[in-house]
Amino acid sequence: MARRIYYNVHTHVFSKHCIPHGIMGSGFGLIIKALEFIQMNNFVIALLSGLKILNVSKSSIPRLKMFFRSFAQGHQHEVITHLVRDQYGKFAYDKNFKFVLLSLDMDAQDAGIAPVNYLNQVGELAEYKAIKPYKDQIIPFLSINPYNMIYHRFHMMKFIKDHIEVWKFGGIKLYPATGYYPDDERLDDVWKYCVAKKLPIMTHCTCGRIHYRGKMESRLNKDKIPYNNLTDSDRQCNFTDMSHFVKILERFPTLKICFAHAGGIVFSKNPRTTLEAELKVTPLSKRAIEYKWYLEVLECCQKYDNIYIDISWINHDEITLIELAKDVKARSIEKKVLYGTDFFVNIDIIEEQKAMENSQKHFDFDLIASVNPSIYLSSDIHEFKATEP
């Protein structure tokens, strides 16, 4: 009898050593530095909560202590083990699960220098992909930032093809908020390659805590600033705006792209009636922009065959899942929804087990965690199945 294979299409496993100290501002840098010398304890957790770096509840404290021992003191291997091997506590997953590990190029966003640079970050993932027990269970994605200086040493397309075709990476990860436009002409050959090989792309699609830390004027194109009213870190929205992706899709309509977090809006914090009203007011607020992205992503799912959304991070919030499930059904795009959790970014707000239970409650789990992702992930280079003998 065939067994069903499940996929979590959105996880992160980079450790503290991969993170520049300025990745979320100078205050977080001090915390990251301190973690080299101290263990996560109640005082540190309270401090992180006070700085609004973590959303800390009483129930999350044991989980945070447990996780940060591997994150702060170890390397990516320990974080992967924490996710998939169940050695540190009760988690959701069994041997029938496979995990997309999304690397993140943090070397080119003026946030400082990480102890383990991006080349070494993805090098470690390539090593894990080549050995048991992980080779059949992890699917690394290669993060691309056209500003990274490594492309002065390595031809970008050779770098990509080596990781995809030789080291068995499964797809491409975009994070425009780190300071580049997805329709940057330097990425044209990447899209041509992805179209030719039917490779999946995962793109960040929120206005979040990780973003470009340099002077925005050095990266923003004066002719491509949809939101002139935004200030400080919110200006990152100008890079991620859906208008740039629409331009790519007009040129490459068969590109296979998953928009993470379904645009990122959380309906329990932002009532739909309020968001609808704010869409009619100019200039748009940040939360109205994310709601606009949400609606535009759903439209793209209807218009293009290979556009998907994942429910990572937002599956901590059942109200959002209920609203999303209604919209998905109304638009008949059930085959465009993918299961993911955003581990370990979600670790302060929800357990993996609970995120999975929420997802199972409001969606057809076999569809979003098995059938749909097996189609999304499969390419002319790698095959992924919904069931195995």
Characterize the structure shown.
- The structure is a single chain.
- With 389 residues, the chain is of the alpha/beta class.
- The protein has a single domain, classed as Alpha-Beta Barrel (TIM Barrel), CATH 3.20.20.140.
- Helix content is 39%, strand content 10%.
- Helix 12 links the parallel strand 8 and strand 9 (337-338).
- The longest helix has 18 residues, at 286-303.
- It is globular and about 55 Å long.
- The N and C termini lie close together (6 Å).
**Which percent range describes the beta-strand content?**
5-15%
How would you characterize the largest beta sheet? 8 strands, parallel
Instruction: Give, in order, the helices and strands.
Output: EEHHHHEHEHEHEHHEHHEHEHHE
Strand runs, count: 10
Q: How far apart, in Å, are the first and last alpha carbons?
A: 6 Å
Structural class: alpha/beta
- Rough outline: globular
**How many domains would you count in the coordinates?**
1
Which regions contain 5 or more consecutive residues with pLDDT less than 50?
A: none
Please name the fourth-level CATH homologous superfamily. Answer: Metal-dependent hydrolases
Chain-wise SSE layout:
Elements: E1 3-4, E2 6-11, H1 26-34, H2 42-50, H3 61-73, H4 76-84, E3 97-102, H5 118-129, E4 138-143, H6 156-166, E5 171-174, H7 188-197, E6 200-203, H8 237-240, H9 242-251, E7 256-259, H10 272-278, H11 286-303, E8 307-310, H12 318-331, E9 337-338, H13 352-362, H14 365-377, E10 387-388
Parallel strand pairs: 2-3, 3-4, 4-5, 5-6, 6-7, 7-8, 8-9
Antiparallel strand pairs: 1-10
